[in-house]
Amino acid sequence: MNTRQAGIRCEDKMNRILKSTLVAGLPALVVLGVGSGTSLGQTWDGGGSDNNWSTGLNWVGDIVPGSAANATFNATGIANPTNDVDTTRSIAGVTYANPTGTYVTDLGANTLTVTGSLSAGNSATIGTATIQGTGTLQLNNIAIGSFGTGSVTMTGITVDASNLGTVTVGQGFHSAGGNGTLDLSGATIDGGTLDVDILSVALGRFSDGTMNLGSTSNLTTLTVNNTLNIGAGGGTGRFGFATPVAVGPYAIGTYVMPSGIAVKVGTSLASRGNIILATSDGGGVGTSNLILSGGTFESYLDTLTVAGGTANGGGTAILDLSTTSIVGGTLDINNLSVGNGRFSNGTLKLTSASGLTTVKVNTALNMALEGTGRIGDSANLMPSNIAWTIGTATNRASVTVGASAGGWSSNGLLVLSGGSMDARISTLQVGTGGSNNGSAAGTLDMRSTPLIGNGLDVTTMSVGTGRNDNGKVYLGTGTANVGTTTIGTTDVGSAGLLELYGTVFKVNTLMTINGLGTGGRINSRVQGVSAGLDIANSASLTITSSALVSTNEGLNIVFANNPLSALGVGTGAAGDNVYWGLRWAGNHTAALTAMLRGADNILNNADDLLRWNASALSGAFNSSAVSIFYDAGFGTPERPLNMTYIGFYTAIPEPTSLGLVGLAGIGLLRRRRA
Length: 674
Description:
Blueprint: H1 8-24, H2 28-32, E1 41-43, E2 70-73, E3 82-84, E4 89-96, E5 103-106, E6 111-120, E7 126-132, E8 136-138, E9 141-146, E10 149-171, E11 179-203, E12 208-212, E13 221-232, E14 236-242, E15 255-256, E16 262-265, E17 273-277, E18 287-291, E19 296-299, E20 301-310, E21 313-314, E22 316-320, E23 325-326, E24 330-340, E25 345-349, E26 358-369, E27 372-376, E28 381-384, E29 387-390, E30 397-403, E31 410-417, E32 420-432, E33 440-446, E34 451-463, E35 470-475, E36 478-487, E37 495-501, E38 503-513, E39 519-527, E40 532-535, E41 540-543, E42 554-561, E43 568-569, E44 577-585, H3 589-597, E45 610-613, E46 627-631, E47 643-651, E48 665-670
Parallel strand pairs: 1-2, 2-4, 3-5, 4-6, 5-7, 6-8, 6-9, 7-10, 8-10, 9-10, 10-11, 11-12, 11-13, 12-14, 13-16, 13-17, 16-19, 17-20, 18-22, 19-23, 20-24, 22-25, 24-26, 25-27, 26-29, 26-30, 27-31, 28-31, 29-32, 30-32, 31-33, 32-34, 33-35, 34-36, 35-37, 36-38, 37-39, 38-40, 38-41, 39-42, ...
Antiparallel strand pairs: 14-15, 20-21, 43-47, 44-47, 46-47, 46-48
């Protein structure tokens, strides 16, 4: 018998019964029978002679809650009350809102099905409960610590969580923070499956949430059909269990997931889910990790955000997939953001152990937009030989690596190794947007990744285009097709670098290389096959930096290898090809010569904006062969009509049968470059 069963409490109970009897004019026995009826909302008062749910006197109004009712435990004046689910039953909801003590709900060996929500400490209340026994708890929705303080510990029982709607552990908003804890470490997960539509651990400003699965959890499958939020909107979220020993880079007490779990987010490409880790709603600072260990990761994602921020707060998050096998070897994501927002710091860990072979980003890739973003292993290198696809045939994506938009600094790094890149991009920004109060640093390194299919197809490309910004882009073999490109800016301290390793970089509208201080620079390496800037006749090439030979600003062309399959330097005859490091449709010899000689019309002076180095050429080829020249051409792929080159003619082993058509090229300027 609990403490509320004696004295005046029992007296009050009897008085109510007698009064009811007199008013109704019914025998007392009939009135007592009402205690087994139903009500839409019943509150436990513990007034019966036992602790059983089936005893009407234990409920306010002496009515046992039925299947459509919500059972509330608010413990007013009852210290550490215990309640026993003495029969298998179904109920619409269970609410714990006890300001002091802990409710203990004992299932015994029975099954309690909650068709609505299991709640504790919501809406400015405090709720603490332990659910124990050997029975089964079937759940639909869970809300713990939503704008209040709640804690639920499940021990000994079996939890059927195979068809959950919404689970929220810790939720807040602006000044109304929530603190929630759901401890499943002592429970058995029925079938080892946790299947939920929306799972949120610390959702909203000032929220604090912990979902403890325990290190020995029998959980084998975690499926989130819609959205997984951990520390989203300015909260501190913990999911998994606190490791008792240091694990790799993670200190004692870091929450990691139990090993060997099959994690799935989203259900299909037609029904995508979301993962949001540690973001800010404008004031709160989100903190969370999702650290998987072994097992598998299957995803169909609309949005993956690893740390986001706003004007007054940012998030810090790690998503670690480094030891987890990625199902199908594919990450297919519409919007991928890592360190996207002011003060944010995000890391997406991937290694070759994950079996990742394909990454698809369909709409937006944002790394370090006013934050710090890293993708890859501990050295921030992507696993090798991954096939990247950015954008789709019907939708160009946007890509940002290191950008500042309001006076805040950022640092983004994306380094690819091998594999391939096939991209359709609307705007590509790397190290852009800096101002007096902040700078952007961004590096996109694809020098060892061939450009295939559409190559790098970009409408607008900006590299190092803000005050104190530092942007670097390295491209490998293949074709980049770009409308407007800006490298560096006239702002103080800007530094933009575009480095081409055997890349044919098609300029369709405008190429601008400019800057002060470290300025803007393009380094183009010709590695046995013609490559470099390939400029349309209608496009413009503008170099306006304060180019200094010592810093190699402007445009630098390096002929790093002899031309492949060439007998020697040609004469421009019909059978010859051209080995070039720059090609510009139309006759632009005067413009290129002016860039070569600078404003003072003197070679090798500080104001030169264009230079080349052919010292690596050997044998039948030598550096003196390189020149600026116009070629009328033959309308063939090797010799299109009406082109200006920096390079030289080559004689091929087996000349094509085109016939002699006279002199095809006019050498206008030859010079030796050491």
